[in-house]
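Following up on my earlier thread - several people asked me to post the actual chain instead of describing it. Fair enough. Here it is, all 455 residues.
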Amino acid sequence: MRLCVNVFVGAVLCTAVWACAGGVEAQTATAFTNVTVIDGTSPNPRPDRTVVIRGNRIVAEGPAASTEVPENARVIDGRGKFLIPGLWDMHVHLAMPGGKQVLPLYIANGVTGVRDMAGDWATLTAWRRDIARGTVIGPRIVASGPYLEGGDVPIPHLLVKTPADAAPAVDSLIRLGVDFIKVHGQLTPESYYAIARAARARRIPFAGHVSRSVGAANASDSGQASIEHILSIPNACTPAESVSLAPRFTVQGALGRCSSADLSSLFDKLRRNGTRVVPTLTAQLEVARWPKRDLPGDSVQRYLPDSLKQYVAGIFPMVDSVPPDADVVGLELFDKRVAMAGALYRAGVIVMTGTDAPLRNSPPGFGLHEELLLLTKAGMTPFEVLRAATLEPARFLGLADSLGTIATGKVADLVLLSANPLVDIRNSSRTVFVISNGRIYSVRRDASGRLIDVK
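Reply from S.P.:
Thanks for posting it. Predicted structure:
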């Protein structure tokens, strides 16, 4: 059997399931030999290892000198290369115009899992089914379906205007089969708490935005599993900065308000309650730079179909009220957001990686590597950042028994890199092979590192 799916992503990516290519049976073993293994269990890499996969599982992992390579296995020499667990983007939106066309970009960038934070449920479940079958190339998907909101918005949602609406909305999402409930920012405190009670009673996680009227501390005490975009967590500022860094236009408020209050009690609460934070710094940079428009994400726009670029431009348009020097305040606020992500991590709050893809500075797959870089600028080490993109998402999702590390018996979601990400986190994008649920993809790049295709 041979599978080759053509997908338009600015160029044609001809993607083949290696395990079926060239007449090789799907259960034939593949061995990565003499490779350096890096995962979230230790900051010390494990050199000279052999990792054997069969089907979608790792069947052996150990020293190259003593780990047997099965007869007739396909052998990939990992000498000078580095094997990490598949990466997770814990905040994406897949079901958009052109969204199916760019699913392979996640795989090409080593992103083997995503958490979709609002989208058409029928579309997401169809894609998830096709990805599992191997007829569509893309990451494994954990999804909320429509989110719960207190006002009308142009994204799939259920309206919860009063507390009486909360339990029926939660129940309807559970009947759909969603993996978790997402809450959003227009909910009144009364409606928010009613949703929290309903979710706790039905033992389904809830996550998402936190309005200022609810506050991060109350959200954490209510059981919210993760806070997205660091919303309702203020920036640490001096009293003078609270004046000088007041938002210059409405959307700039997404970069956080200033506060000179001691935040240690909030950090302690988030840590004790196990509330995760997904900063999505990559997405916030676009607002920080307004009215300037150049962004790191522009360098890979050629991979995106026009339908997706046009849709994203309509969701997040430049507003007329942006003063010409607003980026001066915006970039200072952005630096505060980056610093806040680091402060949360150092206080023991678990930080996870997410991008809000496919915003302009968060292109599918590519944006995650920018997020990893920004988290190192927040003071996290490359090892800590990799763990935030691998082991911590697996733990959060209750999948640590099968994902997030490289060990015998785990699912074969892996990424082979040509350079050490512990030396420079930017090396996380230097993918050579990506193994997603046992299917092995070869990633070709030109001399400058630009993606050519995935096979």
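The CA atoms of residues 282 and 371 lie 5 Å apart. That should answer part of your original question.
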